[in-house]
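name: query_chain
kind: protein
chains: 1
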Amino acid sequence: MSRIPEPIPTPDGPTYEGRLLDRADEEVVDQGVVFDIGTLLSRRGVLGLAGLGLGAVVLAACAPAASGGASSTPTPTPTSTPDAAAVVTGEIPDETAGPYPGDGSNGPDVLEDSGIVRRDIRSSIDGAATADGVPITIVFQVVDLANGGVPFAGVAVYAWHCTAQGEYSLYSSGLEDVTYLRGVQVADADGRVSFTSIFPGCYAGRWPHIHFEVFPDAASITDAANAIATSQLALPEAACSAVYAQSAYAGSAQNLAQVTLAGDNVFGDDAGASQLATLSGDATSGYTATLVVGVDTTTAPAAGGAPGGGDGGPGGGGQPPSS
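structure:
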């Protein structure tokens, strides 16, 4: 293994490969994730990554810090932290927001509600209802591909998903006035957002998933047309099988047995390769699901919005059961 060259002193401070060190008193290997990303990107040609388009960016995925309001509901503690390294190989695939986005594109609009910016999404915004299920912490780390893959600080991420029974707040029968399992977080300096939620169930016709939209900032979330990326996170099969063995998820195991990642009408293009979350934890103590999301603002979003009706249409997929 070759030795890393020593930084070169300059009037403005020590540099490495022509770039000022972020931490002048520390070694090159201790400069942090943003500096490491720049180093990797500057070596793309040497590493033979040019053929991959935007190339591969390796990010350190540390445990996220809360950036939303406090909640009276305790936050579950997974048995282990997320994998220390996550890889993004390009822009996150554009997907439909599906028939149940609640972003105003087909009727219900939770993004207009005061209190939607929150970390814990297990309860309705007014606290009147709470979703039950296996705890899960959902972590998105957003990277800005238009600027070399640096963390996309300040973007707002809206996440939503179904209940343990496969129902969606705001849409399913009896849940029209319920707002749980929906929330917005603003990315920190490392491009990370985190949500405390419950593991979603599996309804007929779809692989277990979590929807999300990325907006330029929190002020933009009131108009779904402002989204710069719309996609879905896929959950690994082993964890789904473990969770769906519990009585609270009745029917999910049977539905899971009838679908595959490769055959799913959203993840089937690449069997979820770029949307499959990294999981840690277990079905007893809870899970942490982490996904690195590459967003390229130089390309026009090709998805988003929601089709009318209840079956989701092509790419929407699946009809969750009514109460």
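note: The two ends are 60 Å apart (CA to CA).
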